[in-house]
Specification:
With about 375 residues, the protein is an alpha/beta fold. The chain has 18 helices and seven strands. The chain has a domain of about 60 residues. A seven-stranded mixed β-sheet has the order 1-7-6-5-2-3-4, with helices on both faces. Helix 10 packs across helix 14 and helix 17 packs parallel to helix 18. The two termini are about 45 Å apart.
Amino acid sequence: MGISGGAREYLLNFNNCAKVISLKELKNLVVAGDLFNIASRLLHRSNTMTDFCNELINLIHKFQRDGIQLIWVIDGKPRIEKNYVIEHRRNFREKINKKIEDIIENVVDNTTKIDDEYEHIIALSKKARSMRQEHVEMAKRIFDIMGVHYVHIENMEADAILKYLLDYHIADIVFSGDMDLLAYGCSRIIQNLDFRNDIITEINYEDLLSALRVSGEQLLSAMILSGTDYNNSLKHSKFGDNLEFIKKYGSISKVLENLDEINLDIPEGKKITIPKRFDWQVSMDIFKEVLSPNIIKDIKCILEKQKSTHARLTVKMFEDFYKMILDNDTTPNKKYGRKVQDYLYWKFNYKAHPVYSSLPKTEAKPNYSSVKRKLFN
């Protein structure tokens, strides 16, 4: 759900605040990725667990190939204030699944129509996909094998951890499509990766505030008025309007006090009103939350332990996983297996490695041109 009220469209299109850059411009930086947000997009392109694994491997390789380090942050148990949104999402998925069941039931005796409805069923099923525990465990396995850092704390959601990684210069930039990270005040965010052209959209928090002519507190207030995962939005009011209200009146409480004045020239039925679920102070406290010393200590220990483990990684550790990919790869010319071969060649120069001959090969020859440039130029 994130920030509502058209905030995404407004901010991404306001005075060129968001700029498109090449991945190469992030060379030698550390990127902290919001796994649940990014992986949900990978799931839309995946029909099987093997598809998901290879989408994730391909994404990691794309960043590493340009000299970008990754730290993935995985959501733990959501806070109770989010129960309303979680239930809303669950109901949405149930409605989608019911639609699919109805379509199948209606065409069960008509094989011609089944073909006609196939694409519709696939499109609906993608809308209902979400990260499950098996996806999380498989992602962790991939990270361990590929030597990629990740942080997963049982009772912590990703947002506050991502903000911490930026504030303490453990990471340089956050990779997520979630606009909530602007509410947290994350300094640099990238999203909307174009896989084909290796370009991505960057939002610089300080540049955005300057262009909007607001403070961080005012931007957060406008976002809360527009609706978050923890409160509903003002009725009949969009983000752009809410931002102007905050600029004029200074704070959420002052906006609420002046609703009569705001509504003077607004016709009945469209007047701005307060929703039932609107404990805005709770939302404000959550977005300003600071991690406890114990959580910070846990994060540092996790990353240090992984650093030690990654130093001992070898191509042999990837072998069984690679075989599993090949066994489940039904794509033409073993496309996924070929991508894994490319990664192994880039990561370990495994063609010259003694165990190279023991690895299963795909039928199609891998395209090594790009990785050769990385290795030898």
